[in-house]
Specification:
alpha+beta; about 30% strand; 10 strands; globular; six-stranded mixed sheet; single chain
Length: about 180
């Protein structure tokens, strides 16, 4: 059986800086460089609208990143939306680390399996306290909380109403608005 070479965050950054990956849409997942799924118009629209909505709700409380990388121990995924600590200037010289992240949102249609398995495991292992998947096929929000042993102990499926993120209990977010 052949073993794949695993890449470190440092290796990955060296390849990016050397221009090796400049024309490739990839992310580092558990030490492997993985091609990213092409974005459909509805995927891009939902992620962008969700980002703008959350920026309005979380102004002066958090920085809401759109399609930007986050740096974890052996992965550098590019979640659709990442809600991270302020100040934004912290990320001039590095992407947000796990301890900077309040929660992550992935928008999924064709990527649903990867988002519910591989990325869920990566985010749980990094101890990201809250992970949301906007499932465009089923028009539902899947909320994962309480990371432990590469998974989340709590899973909730919401189709409508309001949700309050763990990091900001004073904020109510419309599920319908995120899914529209």
């Amino acid at each position: 059986m052949k073993m794949l070479a695993k890449w470190s965050i440092e290796d990955y950054h060296q390849m990016i800086n050397a221009g090796i990956l400049c024309d490739r849409k990839v992310e580092l997942l558990v030490g492997e460089i993985v091609e990213m799924s092409p974005e459909t118009p509805i995927h891009y629209y939902t992620a962008e609208e969700g980002t703008q909505y959350l920026q309005t709700l979380l102004a002066s409380k958090a920085h809401v990143r759109f399609n930007g990388p986050v740096t974890l121990s052996d992965s550098e995924p590019e979640p659709d939306i990442a809600i991270v600590r302020l100040p934004k200037s912290t990320y001039k010289n590095h992407h947000p680390y796990a301890e900077d992240i309040f929660w992550i949102i992935e928008v999924a249609k064709s990527s649903l399996k990867k988002d519910l398995e591989l990325k869920l495991s990566i985010y749980a292992q990094a101890n990201i306290q809250e992970y949301w998947v906007l499932d465009l096929s089923q028009k539902q929000l899947i909320v994962f909380r309480n990371p432990e042993n590469n998974t989340y102990l709590s899973q909730q499926i919401i189709n409508q109403g309001m949700i309050t993120p763990l990091a900001f209990p004073e904020i109510e977010i419309s599920v319908e608005r995120l899914l529209s």
